[in-house]
Structures are given as structure tokens and as C-alpha cells.
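Hi everyone,

Forwarding the result from last night's run.
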Amino acid sequence: MIAKGEKLAVIAAKLGVSRSTVYRHRARMRSPARSSSTVATVGVRLSEAEIAALDRLVAANGGWSRSRFLRNLVRHAAGFYAPNPEEDEFLAGAEKHLSRLGGNFNQIAFTLSAAEKRGELPAKVRAHVAELHKAADEVEEIRAVLAQMLHVSQVRASLLQAALKPGQGGEHDGA
């Protein structure tokens, strides 16, 4: 019925299900198929105080849904993303090294370009100058990617650590 273009509200009425069920089925039709082993729904019973604490944590994380917050919490607890200081240090060092290397390339290219303008470079060297400019641009692109990777890594780590801080929002551990 969805494929034929019937209105979702009409389909829901005909089948005796809620409209949200029909919308969910339509969304599944549009997205790639998932096997039941890749996604599962988990139910948890919480007291009103626990729900209120959960909602405060969710609100503190930029208005995420409960599902997204809990999924990220589980991923962090299970080690799907564990901040790795060695990786962060490597990325920061690589970014600094490439930045210095790019600066060196630019200085060499500037000097050679000035010599070229004065007519002091043979034609064979001019081709190398063009290659040097291209290499300097590539180094800058790589440096920018590494800087972005480092930034994303640090932001993800701080968000997950903030989400897991005990005692946030006045909740208790039941003890």
C-alpha cells in the first residue's frame, strides 16, 4: 500500500495500527535492510527519579534523545570509543611536524620563485618549483585533516567523559 502511494493515515486505519507504525515501516523501506542481529531494542525499567536524572543528563548533552544518549553511554562503557592519549599525542605531533614542513616548503618555494622572476633559474628547475608548490599544498591539506581529526577526537572524548561524570544532576546510585 505504501508503494502504491496510499496515504499513511488511511493505511493505518485499514490495518488497525497506529500511524507511527506505518511511518516506521515506510522508513525501513527507504533505508538499507538491517538484519535482526545488527540492531536490537532493549527495554529498561526506571523509577521516576531515575527518569528525571536521565532526562537531566540528556538535556545537558545538547538535547540528544534518550536513545542516542544511552547508546553513546553503552558504546563508551563497552570501549567502542576510549580516548587514547597516545593517539591524541601522535596526531598533535604529526600536525605540528606537517605545519613546520609546510612552512619550510613555502620558504623554499618563495626563494625559488623570486630567483625565477629574476631569470636566475634554468628551465629544468622551473618544473621542480611547480612540483614544490604542489607538494606544499598537499602538506597543508594533510595538516588540516590531521588537525580536524585531533579536534574531533578531543571533542568526542570530552562529551563522553561529561556524560559519564558521577553525581551529575543530583542522581544517586541507589546505595
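Residues 169-175 have pLDDT under 50 and may be disordered.

Cheers,
N.
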